[in-house]
Amino acid sequence: MKITVIGLGYLGATHAVAMSKTGHQVIGLEKNPAKLESLKQGKAGFFEPGLDEALAVEIASGRLTFQADHDENSAAADLHFICVGTPQTKESLAADTSYLFSAIEDLAPHLKPESVVVGKSTVPVGTAAALHSRLAELTGFEPHLAWNPEFLREGTALEDSLRPDRLVVGVNDERSEAALREVFAPMIASGIPFLVVDIPTAELVKAAANAFLATKISFINAMAEIAEVAGADASQLAEAIGYDERIGNKFLRNGVGFGGGCLPKDIRALMARAEELGVGQSVAYLKEIDNINLRRRERVVAMLEAELGNLSKKRILVLGAAFKPDSDDVRDSPALGIAMLAYAKGAEVVIHDPVALPGVALKHPELIGQQDLEKAFSDVEAVVLATEWREYRQLDPATVVGKVANALIIDGRNVLDINSWQHAGFKVLALGKNVKGNK
Ligand code: UGA
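# uridine-5'-diphosphate-glucuronic acid complex -> structure
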């Protein structure tokens, strides 16, 4: 089929590559000139393992092209996938849907009545209905508009797009359903569950999935808060409850909590939307999910203060800046949150990350970025492991122990081999447990 993908950030760039890999003819539309140029050169412009390589292959195949604006060629598409961002608004918890409405304004003059418009962005429930009305007003005909939420995770984005756990499509007309069945035919044939639902359900599925995931993480972090004062171990607790299949062991890793461009924003947007709909109470508990999450960052700084006293002028190393490994995304990153809290207390904060330092320099030039891992340890008083990059887990503590004045490390992700770090001479503290065996 012939498709367009409108908006080429994480979601759009990955979807465009996945659709091209599936065999479709894909036109990617991107308004940002620098991003567009980079995509044409086969560079997504962000760090996502395997994506640039796949991009180059798809461009070379001739199936994937990029352009700034709609034209006759793109107007001939069977489906238009809208993948623009819906960030949190500055003034409230709500999501900003204005990029969706501008995408519709641009598309309308070119839209053919038989083409299907498919929203993929994460939206407050009811957004699609508003977009539908606007599109009908602009085109003068009843458009085919469907919703197809995306569940990809950063770090495994392409794999998640090609082999998702399920495909969910929200439709209210037969043509949209038929077109979506055809575009996803190879995935459906491979056995991936294909759920056809109404549009509000499709919109809400995504918000619900992310709210549930955030709830799981904050649940185990709440248990970690209790474990810390009761002398229990939250990681062992997670393992023990995880064997119960009804609970499951995934997304129960306790630590500095969740971040990124999705989970924090999506639980806030769901609270805001529920409030608008008069059912705010139904998800009022998400406020506490958010609070538990943010408290973990403060807890790390409190641990530093308990060990080092006043943090003023103390040099602290934060290992990791990205919100998770295999990503250069620093949006709402717990690592950056901790770094900034320590900085606010007067600490000199050195931050290391294998790929995310350019993003840090843009957002927080007050932090001292250090790309060289061994050099990053020089003359610091304490270390916080905040993002579980493989190089930190594999680091030989003996090579760095001499550089850290207090030989203190706080494992914010519960990934270090505590014995070997202690053996090398470190005092190891961790979230959710009282570490034994420190000298
Ligand atoms: C999340 C969802 O997992 C995707 O399904 C969804 O498509 C995406 O948001 C989105 O809405 O676009 P992502 O933000 O890439 O994906 O990252 P996750 O893997 O969900 O991790 C989120 C955060 O939770 C990270 O900071 C991670 O370190 C943290 N986390 C995860 C924990 O603290 N503990 C865990 O057990 C798992």
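# post-check
DSSP finds 18 helices and 14 strands in the chain.
The mean pLDDT is 97.
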